[in-house]
Amino acid sequence: MHEEVTIFEFNKTSNRKEWELVNDEVMGGLSMGLLQIDSDGKGIFSGHVSLENNGGFCLIRHDIERISVENYSKFIIKVKGDGKKYAFRCRSGEHQRHTYSYSFKTTEDWQTIEIPFNQMEAVFRGEDLKLPNYHGDFLTQIAFIIKNGVAEDFKLKIDSIKIV
């Protein structure tokens, strides 16, 4: 195994525009999410999920230059939540339509969550696919999504995303 590698770490000079916001408005929904950098330099993914007009999700994603991760076995994310469930997602190819997803429940304290590659399930537009779990060969994108099937406000504080 290789040493821990930082994929993204928020800090006071982080540019929130490096992350793309995708609300369910792409499907006609009315959910509103945003990403901000707080005074401590942490990323704050917050907003309101609405179920109106077939909505129900907010997502932020960050594209990275394709890297090999075959010598690694898991993501380590450091987050502080609101007691709600979120999912961390990744993509292994630039032209790949599906992502690999792992759900986790947050607390109001800082958490270090380990996400084994082989437990990340293939999904496309919210549907589980009958494909093998993430095999951990390449990485081109990381993302966070909230989609709990309920209308709710949310707030997820993000410190870092690493691989080990």
TrEMBL record:
InterPro entries: Galactose-bd-like_sf, NADH-UbQ_OxRdtase-assoc_prot30, NDUFAF1. Residues 8-158 form the NADH:ubiquinone oxidoreductase intermediate-associated protein domain. It holds the Pfam family CIA30. Belongs to the CIA30 family. PANTHER family: COMPLEX I INTERMEDIATE-ASSOCIATED PROTEIN 30, NAD(P)-BINDING ROSSMANN-FOLD SUPERFAMILY PROTEIN. This is Complex I intermediate-associated protein 30 (CIA30). It comes from Maribacter litoralis.
